[in-house]
Amino acid sequence: MHRKATMALAVAAALGLPHAATAQTQDELRALREQVRQLDRRVTDAEQAAVQASSRPTGENAMNPAVSVILNGIYSNLSQDPTAFRINGFTPTLGEVGPGVRGFSLGESELALAANIDHNFRGTLIASISPEDGIGVEEGYIQTLALSYGFTIKAGRFFSGVGYQNQIHAHAWDFTDAPLANKVFLGNQLGEDGVQLKWVAPTETYFDVGVEVGRGRQFPAGPAGGRNKNGVSSGNVFAHVGGDLGTGLAWQTGVSYLSTSPQDRTFDDPTGTSNSFTGQSRLWVLDGILKWAPNYNPTYTNFKLQGEYFRRKEDGSLTFDTTGTAQTGGFTSTQSGFYLQGVYQFVPMWRVGYRYDRLDSGTTSFSAPLNAADFPILAAYNPTRHTVMADWSPSEFSRVRLQFASDKSRSDVTDKQVFLQYIVSLGAHGAHKF
Amino acid sequence: MNPIIKILSGLSLAIFAAPSIAALNIFACEQEWAALAQELAGDKASVYSATTALQDVHKVEARPSLIARVRSADLLICSGSELEVGWLPLLLTQSGNAKIQPGSEGYFEASQFVPKLEIPKVVDRALGDVHPSGNPHVHLDPRNIARVAEVLTERFVQLDPANADTYKARGISFRERWRAALSRWEQQAARLKGVPVVVYHKDMSYFINWSGMREAGSLEPKPGLPPTPTHLAELVERMKREPAKVVVYSAYNSPRAAEFLSERTKIPSVMLPFTVGGTDRAKDLFGLFDDTIGRLLATVK
Fold first, then answer.
1. Which residues does A44 contact at the CB level (< 8 Å), separation at least 6?
2. Which of B184, B212, B229 represents a domain boundary (last residue)?
3. Do residue B158 and residue B105 come from a single domain?
4. What is the pLDDT of residues B57-111, one digit of tens each?
5. CB atoms inside a 10 Å sphere around CB A384
6. Is there a single domain that holds both residue A390 and residue A365?
7. Does A253 touch chain B (CB under 8 A)?
8. Which of A140, A316, B64, B270 has the most CB atoms less than 10 A away?
9. Radius of gyration of chain B (CA)
10. CA B150/CA B153 separation, integer angstroms
11. Distances from the Cα of A153 to the Cαs of A142, A190, A197, B62, in angstroms?
12. Sign (positive or negative) of CA dihedral A47, B191, B150, A27
């Protein structure tokens, strides 16, 4: 269409301006050509602007939030009965720590909605739709945009900033399941109802500090849904330092301290007795992550090394057999654990990874009338696990993973686990944390 | 003073040295906008580029170092049109910096100020990594650089009125130099008109549109998906029927797919800088176009 316009303009220029037509000087001709070319460009621009204007969404749904859906499905082959799963040496958390069911199963589907609410706030809702028991709120929070000076406040339900992996959604994990340490110390993944304040320093090297206060909704404060009291039942402080090294390395390391006061935190021993703990639980986590990609271009090859060390002290009173004899005595424990994992993308779309898990049941002590023999789940044992995985991601939005693990969470048996899993995302393009 | 405290405070000074103080602290998502900002602001700005010419801007990690830079920025200049959607939103929400949030004066999306190409009629991920609001790689049409320069100068004046005269003078100087260069490039690129070209990714569309070259295929089977053997084999067959004159790829792409096609079809391949810093000669925006056109002319002959 604009070709025609050009022609018409050229003709008009030639006919409508007789003195130009008779002008013999090259300069005037050149000026005319330039005018025609500029008009031509303006016509093109106007046409393209019209196309762009018409392509914008109009009406009420132009303000729709970014919507994305995560689907995942899994085939599991487990050599040991998953219903009898336990991690020996550690207090059961009642979190989703087990390896799931045998055979085919649908994982939790996620529905995420996010948008700027106004110039002050951004809102995010991530609902998890479990194949069995309906819809849960995984995260639902508002976050400030306009505080400045590096401050951000988050309020609502969010994954606690304790350690590294806890804040990352399961679909973005590099392995099918959580590290053993996250299972025993954070009940798989700790989501808190509360408020988080974070400050980022005005420095070239990344530095942040933050504090969270919450209801103590889940383990280690729970698992009964939090204490029935006003004020704060769970507090977490954290700090991170991070930066770049050379022409391809990026690193970040952090420390966090989670302090909670569990009240009547019940757990069942596999023998069938119910026990409960009331007291103080303090957890230290050191985390580190190192990512390498040649020239920071991860498209072809990249490598990621990630590790966390957990150390927890608990002291308070423990009640044995709450429904029976209900004997109460003092209890203290100092326990630790770590994992280290590496994931290497060796060609576009293909990655392989290895993870090593180790927990140390440390020291536990019971005072009279309690008897260590009455708590077989807490008997000294150091669980370990080796995991290897390979995954294929044909695009940024889909991934298929095969994982093998030799899991010695149970003191008497080794569980040989095979997982074949797909994880896909539909809709808005998500951005993943470092 | 306790020697340990001395060492620690010395170390923390070294680690946490604050970014340099200039009138405007600019965070550019891409090298081309960093270069343009530097041309237009001179020593009134300290400019940081989040990426280099060797990075694929679609796939960037939201590294801690980038969050730290955004934290102190007065102005953020990015291509926009969902190009940085995988990482920029995180930098914005994590930085705790109100000045550069979308909608504020410190947020500048260059692609908003130019006519866009390839706005898809159908938006579906089955078509690859399509950008619903059009192709975001707008900087390789030299006329777009001039358009963005005009708006960017205005933005500098708004943000830092104290140095308005400097920005205006530099804006005029740049416009004149760019206009002269543009007419030179138009003459040179006349020889490229109609030349069929195989691209790697749809990142050359604006250059092709400006120069009048013709896109005869792409090494990626669909935008954003890496070249596959099947697709390359098809491309070899197609090139036998309708040969292109040149195969191009960008500095951040692996040369392997282009070399494969080139060997099989005897069509020469050439690496293009794509953005400032992609080659030694592309050390600024002028060099970027000199080198891009120069390399194409030398290959096409």
1. A2, B115
2. B184
3. yes
4. 999 999 999 999 999 999 999 999 999 999 999 999 999 999 999 989 999 999 9
5. 15
6. yes
7. no
8. B64
9. 21
10. 5
11. 8, 19, 5, 20
12. negative
pLDDT at B124: 83
Verify that A415 and A384 share a domain, yes or no: yes
Q: Is A323:A165 a contact under the CB 8 Å cutoff? A: no
Structure token pair of residue B234: 């098809």
CA atoms of A330 and A316, how far apart (whole Å)? 6
Please check whether residues A131 and A46 belong to one and the same domain. no
User: For residues A86 and B131, what is the distance between their CA atoms, to the nearest angstrom?
Assistant: 48
Nearest CA in chain A to B98: A146
Lookup result for tokens 């939790």:
A108
Model confidence band, residue A223 (pLDDT cutoffs 50, 70, 90): low
Which stretch of DSSP H or E encloses residue A32? helix A26-55
Q: Which residues pair with A333 in a beta bridge?
A: A314, A364
Residue A102 CB neighbour total at 10 angstroms: 15
Helices and strands (DSSP H and E) totals, chain A: 4, 18
- Per DSSP, the residues of B132-200 read TT----GGGSHHHHHHHHHHHHHHHHHH-GGGHHHHHHHHHHHHHHHHHHHHHHHHHHGGGTT-EEEES
Nearest CA in chain B to A116: B102
Euclidean distance between CA atoms B6 and B22, whole angstroms: 29
CA dihedral for B195, B201, B204, B205, sign (positive or negative): positive
Residues B178 and B245 grouped into a single domain? no
| CA A204 centroid distance within chain | 25
pLDDT at A45: 64
- Retrieve residue B30's tokens: 């891409």
pLDDT at residue A308, rounded to an integer: 98
Q: Tell me the two tokens of residue B116.
A: 């866009």
Give the span between the Cα atoms of B118 and A292, in whole angstroms. Answer: 34
A44 with A69, same domain?
no
Could you tell me the CA-to-CA distances from B283 to A267, B66, B291 in Å, in that order?
66, 23, 10
Which residues of chain A does B63 touch, with a Cβ-Cβ cutoff of 8 Å?
242, 244, 250, 291, 296, 434
Return the pLDDT at A145: 92
Question: Are B228 and B278 within 8 A, CB to CB?
Answer: no
Same domain, B26 and B175: yes
Hey, which residues 343-382 in chain A have their CB within 8 Å of chain B? 348-349
Enclosing domain of residue A338: 65-427
Contact (Cβ atoms closer than 8 angstroms) between residue A258 and residue A218: no
How many CA atoms are closer than 13 Å to the CA of A95, on its beta-carbon side? 24
pLDDT band at residue A21 under the 50/70/90 scheme: very low
Domain boundary among B184, B205, B232: B184
- Going by C-alpha positions, the residue among A285, A282, A338 that lies closest to residue A314 is A282
Write out residues 149-208 of B within 8 Å (CB-CB) of A: none
